[in-house]
Amino acid sequence: MKAIPASAADMRLIGGRLCLDFINTVDGRKSASPRSESGSINRLVLGDKLGEYSDLVEWSRHSGIVTALESGRLIKASKRNAAEARNVFDRAIALREALYRICKATMTGRRPQKVDLEIVNDELLGARTHERLTHMAVGFTWEWVDSEAALDRMLWSIAHSGAELLTTGDLSRLRECGAEECGWLFEDISRNRSRQWCHMQDCGNLAKVRRFRSRLANAAKG
Ligand SMILES: [Zn+2]
């Protein structure tokens, strides 16, 4: 188990990419069944850190995709339009789980489910209508427009990050933490591709303690 943070705004951001950190907004994931009949990946979420729209906003501020000022505006707007906020929240969870399953399928050499790709594509379609090519002092960049009033603005960045990972990322470096019931994903950018844990102080140390205890037990038996 990890040192479990109290809220979404305290989560460790260890994935190496926005979309992976978003997938990791849970305490852990546990296998529900090895594989369902359709071949999809079923993992139970343990300790979901996103319980409502305000958690999504808090995490977005924490991860830097909205500013403190913007997050305040989003919370106010969500109170004026609770039904829309609820809908955005449901879409966020659907997007998170679809991204998780696509990454897992990729890591295990299987085709992702069509329905999961459709979820990501739907969000990308929405995001693209807000994307503008802008000239900077040096070169060009993508900028989000008409974001002020949009409750779903954080989903644009997350969907964009997911698409970027899947199209231009080195997918052979995608990893799942080696600890039982952790399930956090990250990009292993270590030179010898040897990163095993989401975070050494959490899952890494725990694994070391377990190995040490098992060595002691074996020595006592021997
Ligand atoms: Zn871990």
Structure commentary:
The chain is of the alpha+beta class and 222 residues long. The chain has a single domain, classed as Orthogonal Bundle (Jann2411-like fold), CATH 1.10.3300. Helices cover 49% and strands 14% of the residues. The protein contains seven helices and six strands, in the order H-E-E-H-H-H-H-E-E-H-E-E-H. Strands 1-2 form a two-stranded antiparallel sheet. A hairpin with a 4-residue loop joins strand 3 and strand 4. Helix 2 packs antiparallel against helix 3, helix 3 packs across helix 4 and helix 4 runs parallel beside helix 6. The two termini are 30 Å apart.
Essential attributes:
222 residues; alpha+beta; Jann2411-like fold; two-stranded antiparallel sheet; 7 helices; 14% strand; globular; binds zinc ion
Quick rundown:
With 222 residues, this protein is of the alpha+beta class.
